[in-house]
Amino acid sequence: MLNDATPEIVNRFRGNLPEGVVREVAQRYLEEPRDRLTGRAGAVLAPATVEEVSAVLRLASEARVGVVPYGGGTGLVGGQLAPEGPVPLVLSLERMKAVRGIWPDEGVMTVEAGAILADVQRVAEEHDRLFPLSLASEGSARIGGLLGTNAGGVNVLRYGNARELCLGVEAVLADGRVMRGLKRLRKDNTGYDLRNLLIGSEGTLGVVTAASLRLFPRPESRAAAVLVVESPEAALRLLGQAQAVAGPALSAFELIAGQGPRFLAEHMPQVRLPFAEIPEWCVLIELGCSAGQDADALMEALFAEAYEAGLVRDGVVAASEAQRAELWAMRESLPEGNRKVGSILSNDISLPLSAVPEFIARAGEAIGKAGDFRINCFGHMGDGNLHYNVFPVAGKARGDYPADTSDRLKELVNQLLAELEGSFSAEHGLGRAKVEDLVRWGDPVRIEMMRAIKKTLDPLGILNPGAIFRIE
Amino acid sequence: MLNDATPEIVNRFRGNLPEGVVREVAQRYLEEPRDRLTGRAGAVLAPATVEEVSAVLRLASEARVGVVPYGGGTGLVGGQLAPEGPVPLVLSLERMKAVRGIWPDEGVMTVEAGAILADVQRVAEEHDRLFPLSLASEGSARIGGLLGTNAGGVNVLRYGNARELCLGVEAVLADGRVMRGLKRLRKDNTGYDLRNLLIGSEGTLGVVTAASLRLFPRPESRAAAVLVVESPEAALRLLGQAQAVAGPALSAFELIAGQGPRFLAEHMPQVRLPFAEIPEWCVLIELGCSAGQDADALMEALFAEAYEAGLVRDGVVAASEAQRAELWAMRESLPEGNRKVGSILSNDISLPLSAVPEFIARAGEAIGKAGDFRINCFGHMGDGNLHYNVFPVAGKARGDYPADTSDRLKELVNQLLAELEGSFSAEHGLGRAKVEDLVRWGDPVRIEMMRAIKKTLDPLGILNPGAIFRIE
After folding, report:
1. Does the distance separating the beta carbons of A383 and B187 come in below 8 Å?
2. HSE-up of residue A12 (Cα within 13 Å, Cβ side)
3. In chain B, which residues have their Cβ closer than 8 Å to the Cβ of A183?
4. Which of A423, B232, B304, B435 has the smallest number of CB atoms closer than 10 Å to its CB?
């Protein structure tokens, strides 16, 4: 059992660490974007070097206090704060944000874990390169947290998840040992894949302090369009056609149900919608072309072919960079629109691609039978990843429904996911919100393996206690 | 300490397993392509189902005998045979080669571990899809071994290593437990990345019995060319230009030193060379284009631009599919040519891309100072992966050099790799040949983590004893 991070223990840290590392607990370290969980912390520790991170974790092991690694605080499953168990310390990487090196010709950049995603994108761009990881919270999210959760976002279809964008990591283990793995190699088969074990472990196996990231040539031309489709089935067929026509130039394929734009029209009228009448289903497509191709011409060919095949009924092809940005602003505003309405249940799920239409049909039917709700289903269809959220009907609020509504709906959704071989966590991770889902729906042997690895790498259980696994 | 797989123990397996599983040890299970190591085995076990693999490993745990997982036997570092330690059993996956499912529209195929790579490629092609993993031994190598070693090959530049081509695995652990992870999802953040931990673990953590593999649209057009360059430096600049011009259409970029074709001319005259005079350096480039592009036109544009920039002095662009195959046949014959000459030292190494020319220059210089040798340096330059092999001078044989020559040269190469932040194992793995290299050159904390994971997942040490780690 861990100890509370009492004032006495915090004082011990203060006495053993350089000035400026041990800090008061500002409120923001105890909050998360959805306001569902409230954290606690004895202190915030903000080390400036990997040696200081190592010292922090050695001290925490000695004192047997939990340590919650903290990036940008944008996680949606509570991985960054601890509402339960002994009071921990928060370990913020915010002071470690240096670019340690950039090799544009190699397509590699080494940055510290506290670097903010938007800054990393900017540095890459200054060197005429693209760092393709992109998501709504990129102005706050930090590299360490993005790797800790194996973040996804809108460009996974072409460039992969955070995992695929990382060539190497430097990380500090629970006892303070430093794993030096900042290789910038495309191929390195020298034993177990510890990099990928740390990536996505949500700070429970080690604290990533720096990473070598992959950079790509910037597309020479880009095009975006919102195309109206009849159904998720038609969207899936359009995806196949887009892949055939555009190949790897297809960088995003986002499904948007009409409910999302309707929420925006009602609650965020400042967001411009690209249609006179909101369609029941549409997709946002982006193409990024290299020198030999013309993105606009490719998009028009795609549109024409899809229209002829009866897959697309209508559409808006962005005619300028400003219009392209506008289409994306609509897409990126959907989560905020949802928050303004207030969901009863939000899901970050994935499915085998061909099962996406069936899931949407059957989940909608099951939820319809369960009561009166509104569903907003949108997400990265190219990756089989849906954000499938359930809301009160117009005029009602969350509190107007029985207290167990959320659990009942979640059970419906997860049952269906299990049947269709999907996943109850696609890109956000487990954090603390989905600990019980793992126990309920995960493969038992996989869970045993995870527990064994956790126990051997963090025998005291000080790293992010309560995330991924229950506090015991 | 493990027990020998004695006839008594083998009999116990025979009594507890279905007929046909326990087999005599044919000679081929004890040999490897380079004839440097000779294996031993009490029996070959060839289970036909995952349940039988599970039964085999339960029995092996009870009997405390080692089990060496065996795929196609094409590994180049001795991961598939055991020359030392207690006599083990060989576990061959050869009877498990079913295609469990294929979803061409999703780009997914689930196959058993014993499926041969060329067969998997063919099935994908029959469904108008590409499985891009491709290497010289694809006619024999099996999926389980390719994943166990995280195999590379010629298309990594565009499609990634075996790891990136796998969405999920089913595997049996040392004690017979079955991990069911055959998901066919693009995104699945439900805990630790056990898939990638098993991939590349060379059968020391579990036995992969099936995998979900990624399929891609087949290129609509392809083009290949051999271009003559002045130096590795020029080749590197050409790579940058090719990436800028062709973007993701660039699927292979292979560096070839003149020594390789000279060996072919001497020892394999049946292999057609694409030049009148063998150049000191050339590169083999392949483009694979989707519908919107014309591969031939793109290749010509690339050639013209590179010629104008002074990067390319001469070249042969394949004018037909037959000529394209001929260029690749030359490339794929290089390892066989090497074997006919008989190397003193062969290396499978990787470097940060920008360090490749420096490595080639400095390694050549150091080896030149160490004695009279011939160097054949070729490989996947697009991945920073070189096969850097050292041979006797003409008229001499390996035996004409002092016995410690190979070790001395290896030391030179590995020193330089360490200095340039490269890797001593890029795509072949560690097997048994590089166990000491890991101890000598690996990050100590990384090795400790690997040992801890090995111990917790295979506490008796029965899985592939002697691979990756020394027998203790």
Report:
1. yes
2. 17
3. 421, 423
4. B304
Print the domain residue range for B279.
Answer: 221-419
d(CA B201, CA A32): 38
Rounded-to-integer distance, Cα B257 and Cα B391, Å:
14
Q: Tokens 């003193």 identify what position?
A: B344
Of the candidates B149, B196, B350, the beta carbon closest to that of A185 is on B350
Q: Which amino acid is residue A112, in one-letter code?
A: E
Strand partners, A345: A390
A152 min Cα distance to partner chain B (Å): 8
Q: Residue B140 sits in a domain of what CATH number?
A: 3.30.465.10
Tokens representing A63 are 């004192």
d(CA A180, CA A172): 9
Q: Are residues B187 and B296 in the same domain?
A: no
Same domain, B244 and B388: yes
Average pLDDT for residues B312-339, to the nearest whole number? 94
Q: A112-154 pLDDT, tens per residue?
A: 999 999 999 999 999 999 999 999 899 999 999 999 999 999 9
**How far does the CA of residue B256 sit from the closest CA of chain A (Å)?**
19
Residue B346 in contact with residue B392, Cβ under 8 Å?
no
Is the CB of A352 less than 8 angstroms away from the CB of B185? Answer: yes
User: Which pLDDT band, with edges at 50, 70 and 90, does A292 fall under?
Assistant: confident
d(CA B179, CA B192): 13
> Which stretches does DSSP call E strand in A40-196?
44-45, 67-70, 89-92, 99-103, 108-112, 129-130, 166-172, 178-181
Write the CA distances from A158 to A132, A136, B216, integer angstroms. Answer: 9, 18, 12
The verdict on B398 and B309 lying in the same domain is: yes
Same-domain check for residues B327 and B355? yes
Question: In chain A, what is the straight-line distance between the N-terminal and C-terminal CA atoms, in Å?
Answer: 8
Would you say the ipTM is above 0.90? yes
Distance CA B73, CA B26 (A): 12
Q: How many CB atoms lie within 10 A of CB A324?
A: 17
Look at A426 and B185 and tell me if their CB atoms are within 8 Å: yes
- Chain B residues closer than 8 Å to A297 by CB: 292
Chain A residues in contact with B449 by the CB 8 A cut-off are 173, 179, 192, 194, 457
pLDDT tens digits, residue range A45-84? 999 999 999 999 999 999 999 999 999 999 999 999 999 9
Whether residue A368 is predicted with pLDDT greater than 80 in this model: the reply is yes
CB B215 within 8 A of CB B245: no
**What is the C-alpha to C-alpha distance for residues A422 and A407, in angstroms, rounded to an integer?**
19
Q: Both B241 and B383 in a single domain? A: yes
Contact list in A for residue B187 (CB cut-off 8 A) is 152, 156, 161, 350, 380, 383-385, 423, 426-427
Looking up residue A399, the CATH number of its domain turns out to be 3.30.70.2740
| Neighbour-count burial for A267-295, b at 16+ CB within 10 Å, e otherwise | eeeebebbeeebbebbbbbbbbbbbbbeb
- B443-452 pLDDT, tens per residue? 999 999 999 9
Q: In chain B, what residues touch A430 (CB-CB under 8 Å)? A: 189-191
Domain-located, residue A1 = no
Judgement on whether residues A208 and A233 belong to the same structural domain of the protein: no
User: At A244, phi and psi to the nearest 5?
Assistant: -65, -40
Q: Does a structural domain hold residue A468?
A: no
**Residue B185 within a domain:** yes
Is the domain of B213 the same as that of B307? no
Instruction: Decide if B1 is inside a domain.
Output: no
Note the helical H segments in B162-268. 194-198, 232-246, 259-267
Q: Band the pLDDT of A471: cuts 50, 70, 90.
A: confident
Instruction: Find the CB nearest A106 among B353, B380, B434.
Output: B353
- How many domains does chain B contain in total? 2
Residue A47: which CATH number?
3.30.43.10
